[in-house]
């Protein structure tokens, strides 16, 4: 038998190791490709520029890259660890370290090529499938599915970069390893470097303390300390995971009856948690991120209509001048089925700022028009004004000037603020935020004596705003055509407001469609990544547990010989697996809930926002149910291999 035949026969005997390693890498390529079909989708790329989707994609994207780097590196290290004793055997038969390196490069090269081909193929099929299902679920239209060269380039480049780093690291370790160490590599047990109940208690204290301080300070600091306390919380979480078993064992020893009945389970758990700290930490954080993000974005998506209605008290609103957005009342009535139509003249007076370049503009409204808008009936003196802020009270600023001095024909005239009113009555439009309300006679005097320009605000209510999309688009087209045919307006303060933005049409149906598209796309991306993270975390746990299967078999065989029954083995395995599967789930779900509660404090708290709580329960419940199914599958596979 030749040397090549020996290598080939050993490869055939250990084919499961190669298949598992290949599947892990293929899975990683599929991850990258599925994400790249979203990130480089033409509609999403447009959204990144126009609809602030950058954060929604960049944060989960960074999480995906970190996770995949860890995933590929870990799969590779497990594969090499299993093969190290084989390398020792090859060297005893005459193979040099250089030959071992060639073998490693050859088999990893073949696996990389096959992984790229099958991963991209699988990614293309599943991304298309998920795309169709989720687009139908969120009723999102106008987002095409397609492939581009960027998707393939990003996938292959990112995978090869991570994969090559892992292979180079293994080559370096293999070339430095001696023959004896390679032969005995599978006989070395990983030692526990530290067992400190005190440090475990400190980790728990650091984690809970960071969350408590973040909860107390979040609203007042406007979230400024969120990154700092989140880092402290993650540090506390890592220390807790690494040392908490020692801390619990120390507590359990105070109750000898309880401790000695569970001695084997607790000792084994202490070893597993220290061995798997990084993986359990990663799985916990991934569960936390996916549940937190999915809940938040599902809430935004479901609130698309509510936000559109709250931000647009009138179904349609727009400004008009003599040359811009020109349309007659008759044309408006022909375009829409009107229920109400208000026309509010707004006089814009501007003064040059003294110490900086620019202008201070005052949007002045007559008291009679203000009363039509708000149904309030205030009374104002000749030199008095009412400060009207078109905003929701919780988001409005409160630094009001008690008086305003206007330069009128070279003389200063002071107006005293009589009252302030903060309520939203006008759609979100430029120059529709702060108003100075004065008597109608005073406004007429100002029109005659100071320079300024008039904007007429049109506010429309129609019979059914959800059926107004076609008419609104027609109105926009008419305005754009007309505005392009007229010269730009020439007011000194106008350079600070884009003409296109000032004369846009703010409508409920427009905001609703924009919110639905943006939030739906963000929810789609997050759901997509959540599913991938879930499968990835399951494979990581599965990979680690079953890579130690030979050692576990040996351990339970010895325990069986000294009297441990099959039922007791099943019970112990179930306890260990249950703890490893459900501790990250419980921790990740709890942390996601706590962060939702903390971030909800600036909108009244999570109990005042039952939608957030309901969506968290739905998403968290689905995650736990799937995790229970994964646990029973892994338990069945493990017991089958250990006992039979």
Describe the model:
- Helix content is 67%, strand content 11%.
- With 644 residues, the chain is α+β, with helices and mostly antiparallel strands.
- A 9-stranded mixed sheet has the order 5-6-4-7-3-2-8-1-9.
- A hairpin with a 6-residue loop joins strand 2 and strand 3 (359-366).
- It is elongated.
- The protein starts with a helix and ends with a helix.
Q: Main traits of this protein?
A:
644 residues, single chain, nine-stranded mixed beta sheet, alpha+beta
Give a concise summary:
Helix content is 67%, strand content 11%. With 644 residues, the chain is an alpha+beta fold.
Q: Care to count the β-strands?
A: 9
C-alpha termini separation:
34 Å
Mean pLDDT: 79
What count of helical segments does DSSP give? Answer: 22
Largest beta sheet: strand ordering = 5-6-4-7-3-2-8-1-9
Q: Largest sheet, if any?
A: 9 strands, mixed
Overall 3D shape: elongated
* Poorly predicted ranges: none
Gyration radius, rounded: 33 Å
Q: What proportion strand? A: 5-15%
Helical content (DSSP H or I, runs of 4+): 55-70%
Structural class by sheet pairing and helices: alpha+beta
């Amino acid at each position: 038998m030749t040397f090549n035949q020996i290598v080939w026969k050993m490869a055939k005997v250990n084919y499961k190791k190669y298949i598992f390693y290949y599947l892990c890498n293929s899975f990683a390529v599929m991850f990258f490709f599925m994400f790249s079909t979203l990130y480089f989708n033409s509609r999403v790329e447009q959204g990144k520029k126009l609809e602030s989707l950058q954060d929604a994609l960049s944060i989960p994207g960074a999480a995906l890259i970190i996770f995949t780097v860890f995933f590929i590196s870990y799969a590779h290290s497990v594969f090499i660890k299993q093969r190290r004793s084989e390398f020792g055997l090859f060297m005893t038969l005459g193979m040099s370290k250089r030959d071992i390196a060639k073998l490693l490069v050859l088999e990893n090269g073949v696996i990389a090529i096959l992984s790229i081909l099958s991963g991209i193929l699988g990614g293309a099929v599943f991304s298309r499938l998920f795309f169709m299902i989720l687009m139908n679920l969120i009723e999102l239209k106008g987002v095409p599915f397609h492939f581009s060269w960027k998707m393939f380039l990003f996938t292959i480049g990112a995978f090869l970069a991570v994969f090559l780093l892992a292979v180079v690291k293994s080559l370096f370790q293999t070339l430095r390893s001696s023959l004896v160490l390679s032969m005995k590599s599978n006989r070395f047990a990983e030692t526990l470097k530290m067992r400190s109940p005190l440090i475990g208690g400190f980790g728990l204290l650091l984690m809970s303390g960071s969350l408590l301080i973040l909860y107390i300070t979040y609203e007042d600091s406007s979230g400024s300390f969120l990154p700092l306390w989140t880092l402290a919380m993650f540090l506390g979480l890592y220390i807790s995971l690494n040392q908490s078993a020692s801390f619990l064992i120390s507590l359990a020893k105070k109750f000898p009856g309880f401790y000695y009945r569970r001695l084997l389970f607790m000792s084994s758990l202490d070893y597993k948690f220290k061995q798997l700290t990084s993986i359990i930490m990663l799985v916990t954080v991934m569960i936390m991120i996916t549940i937190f993000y999915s809940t938040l974005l599902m809430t935004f998506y479901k609130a698309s209509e509510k936000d559109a209605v709250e931000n647009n008290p009138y179904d349609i609103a727009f400004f008009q001048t003599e040359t811009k957005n020109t349309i007659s009342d008759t044309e408006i009535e022909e375009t829409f089925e009107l229920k109400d139509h208000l026309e509010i003249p707004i006089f814009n007076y501007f003064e040059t700022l003294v110490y900086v370049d620019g202008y201070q503009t005052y949007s002045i409204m007559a008291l009679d028009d203000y009363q039509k808008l708000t149904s309030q009936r205030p009374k104002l003196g000749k030199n008095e004004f009412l400060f009207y802020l078109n905003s929701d009270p919780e988001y409005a600023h409160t630094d009001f000037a008690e008086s305003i001095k206007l330069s009128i024909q070279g003389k200063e005239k002071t107006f005293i603020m009589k009252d302030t009113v903060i309520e939203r009555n006008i759609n979100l439009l430029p120059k529709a935020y702060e108003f100075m309300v004065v008597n109608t006679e005073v406004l007429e005097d100002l029109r005659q004596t100071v320079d300024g320009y008039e904007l007429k605000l049109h506010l429309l209510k129609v019979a059914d705003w959800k059926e107004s999309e076609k008419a609104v688009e027609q109105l926009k087209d008419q305005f754009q055509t007309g505005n392009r045919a007229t010269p730009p307006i020439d007011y000194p303060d106008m350079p600070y407001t884009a003409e296109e933005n000032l004369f846009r049409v703010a409508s409920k149906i427009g905001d609703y469609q924009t919110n639905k598209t943006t939030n739906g796309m963000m929810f789609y991306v997050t759901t997509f990544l959540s599913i991938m993270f879930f499968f990835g975390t399951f494979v990581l746990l599965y990979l680690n547990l079953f890579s130690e299967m030979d050692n576990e078999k040996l351990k339970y065989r010895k325990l069986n010989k000294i009297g441990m029954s099959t039922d007791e083995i099943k019970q112990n395995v179930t306890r260990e697996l249950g703890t490893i599967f459900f501790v990250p789930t419980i921790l990740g779900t709890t942390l996601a809930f706590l962060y939702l509660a903390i971030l909800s404090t600036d909108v009244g708290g999570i109990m005042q926002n039952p939608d957030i709580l309901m969506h968290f329960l739905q998403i968290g419940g689905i995650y736990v149910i799937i995790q229970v199914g994964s646990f029973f599958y892994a338990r069945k596979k493990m017991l089958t291999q250990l006992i039979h």
